[in-house]
Design a protein that fits this description.
The complex is a heterodimer.
Chain A: E1 5-7, E2 10-13, E3 19-24, E4 31-37, E5 44-50, E6 53-56, E7 65-68, E8 75-79, E9 88-95, E10 105-106, E11 110-114
Chain B: E1 4-6, E2 11-14, E3 19-25, E4 32-38, E5 45-50, E6 55-57, E7 60-65, E8 70-75, E9 84-93, E10 99-103, E11 107-112
Parallel strand pairs in B: 2-11
Antiparallel strand pairs in B: 1-3, 3-8, 4-5, 4-9, 6-7, 7-8, 9-10, 9-11
The chains are: A mainly beta, B mainly beta.
Chain lengths: 115, 113
């Protein structure tokens, strides 16, 4: 399909385990965003890429969170030494417009559960 | 104070009713505004942009009040299929020339038969 895809869709991790979440944006989309959505809350911004450049990582909650987009397309969000409070849905969105963030197309999300 | 605030609801309304949601934002430099819809356990999807002059798309009307720093969404003739969470989104210029995107917590709408 032509939409944003994310994998895995579901991930269960034991506390302390490292996880890697993948996002495949729509081909040609310059902007890529990661969000964390807790139950009953709106998506919270984590980080933003324009092509391969990470322009804003102010939303990453701790240094255990790391994101990359080395070739300006696929992105990976890595969480080291997962904690129970990391349990959430992690959403990826892409946008054609560089630096705008409007008309974002979201992937289905990865639901992370940390036991 | 949160940057973008919404009443979480739920708003329970009968079919055919008109319902309105408000969303307030704190940064007067915010430049663009949107409403997204999110169904249960699904990803958010863009419902409509919000323009300064107000805009309408079928049964949906969005308005922006820059002076009071709020946006609104009006849904007329509610359908069962309108049941969802409505997320307000505000874009504000950030460092490096890009627009920082902030979501509200969402307002849950339940349309009752």
């Amino acid at each position: 399909g032509a939409g944003v895809s994310q994998s895995p869709r579901y991930k269960v991790a034991k506390r302390g385990q490292d996880v890697a979440l993948r996002c495949d944006p729509i081909s040609g989309h310059v902007s890529l965003f990661w969000y964390q959505q807790a139950l009953g809350q709106g998506p919270e911004f984590l980080t933003y890429f324009q092509n391969e450049a990470q322009l804003d990582k102010s939303g990453l909650p701790s240094d255990r969170f790391f994101a990359e987009r080395p070739e300006g397309s696929v992105s990976t969000l890595k969480i080291q030494r997962t904690q129970q409070e990391d349990s959430a849905v992690y959403l990826c969105a892409s946008s054609l417009d560089p630096g705008q963030g409007k008309k974002q197309f979201f992937g289905p999300g990865t639901r992370l559960t940390v036991l | 104070r949160k940057e973008v605030e919404q009443d979480p609801g739920p708003f329970n309304v009968p079919e055919g009713a008109t319902v309105a949601f408000n969303c307030t934002y704190s940064n007067s430099a915010s430049q663009s505004f949107f409403w997204y819809r999110q169904d249960c356990r699904k990803e958010p999807k863009l419902l409509m942009s919000v323009y300064s002059s107000g805009n309408e798309d079928g049964r949906f009307t969005a308005q922006l009040n820059r002076a009071s720093q709020y946006i609104s969404l009006l849904i007329r003739d509610s359908k069962l299929s309108d049941s969802a969470t409505y997320l307000c989104v505000v874009n504000t210029p950030g460092a490096g020339g890009y627009q920082k995107v902030t979501f509200g917590t969402g307002t849950k709408l339940q349309v009752i038969p």
